[in-house]
Amino acid sequence: MKPWPKSYIVALIVxxxxxxxxxxxxxxASDSSQVFDAYNLEVLVNTLLLMTITALGAILIxxxxxxxxxxVQLPWKKFWLVLLAAPxxxxxxxxxxxFYATFGYSGELNAFTGIETPPFDGLFGASVIxxxxxxPFVLLSTRAALSSLDASQVYAARxxxxxxxxxxxxxxxxxxxxxxxxxxxxxxxxxxxxxxxxAFMGLDxxxxxxxxxxxxxxxxxxxxxxxxxxxxxxxxxYLEAQVKGSQEPxxxxxxxxxxKKQQLLIISGMFPIVLFxxxxxxxxxxxxxxRDGLGNFELSYAWNSAQASLLAAMAxxxxxxxxxxxxxKGKAGKLMERIIFVGFGIPGIVMGTALVYIGLQLPFLYxxxxxxxxxxxxRFLPLAIGSIRTxxxxxxxxxxxxxxxxGASPQEAFRRVTLxxxxxxxxxxxxxxxxxxxxxxxxTLLLGPTGYETLATYLWRVYEAGYFGxxxxxxxxxxxxxxxxxxxxxxxxxxxxxxxxxxxxxx
Length: 507
Description:
Number of strands: 0
Largest sheet: none
Structural class: mainly alpha
Radius of gyration: 24 Å
């Protein structure tokens, strides 16, 4: 029997680690006396309502924007695309925090203008925030489907007298249903897994109640709730896996040239989205910085965030490299990669609950930096694997084959040819892990060492204490980090477009 490659052994170990927290939750939940009661039913209803409203709202905003940004010729079109996709890179809890502090009878809006507004919280507040920060999922997936759509039938319908909106509704939209559904399912999964927004808005969803139970030393009940949440996550992931992309061959592209009045009307419709999702958080944090200054913010908070995130990113780059190559070698590697991706689907609050219990059983790990880095690694390792695998798939294998023909061993060919050519993917994957870990809130709250404050947890402490003005520096730094994430995403997309164009020209 042929021995497994070393990359398979690494993949097997990491896959076992990815599944271990789920096994821990089953063990811990067996001690819970309450499996499901009336309060659990209320939490379930709140969670499902938040998911449903988020998905519907993301469709209502994302689909029209996708149509506009794909088919309508606007001034600064790429600029608008970047601006409208930007909320995807920002943690929703930043929006929730600033909305909560801005509106209401004692909010910043009332203090500055004297305009009283109702409190912005509960299911309504959480739903609005989730829609503003998840509609880009629908926008991007729908735009991708529209970009590859043959518009000949739409032109034919217009020639036969059908109105523009009717032809899009009856001909284009049914053919991009899968793209819309994929984006809506991702939006609902984000709403299901998010902790910060329901917590800031005071909405009892699974993520918020799990944290409440943990603080009340109800670890068994928190584990039971975590398993119930994972069942819903698994269902959404299953539905998302069933959605297939469009297989239509590319054809004639649809283009509309609006007059200046129509352009102004369209831009006026898009501007409020940018205003509430991006400008408002930035403006509120800036006002707080101008009014309250640095407060008691310490640079160690930023250093702690960077330290834990950098350790996770370095570990991810080292571990993801053999895993990405194993996933390309055969079915066993592909299966283990899918198991490892389970960690990315586990909400941070659930991962934190499981690892807290492991820390309690192994006191040398409890509330240590190592356990926090492990949580980041299990959650965000798939980002690094995906980035490296994509770079490896696009690799020209002829250079590796040439090295082998010239007498290089497999290890030497990998070190001298494959690794340098995939280094861009390795660095991009590590950067993605670093940026996501910097913004992670629930796992850091549960697993951070005592007194180990990060940007995200300091923001949470400020919220709990009610000293909102002290959140200016961490809020602005987190927005800056989000901007770096967006820049990285756009740089990668531009690089892929360049490579695609080169291949097309060669062919």
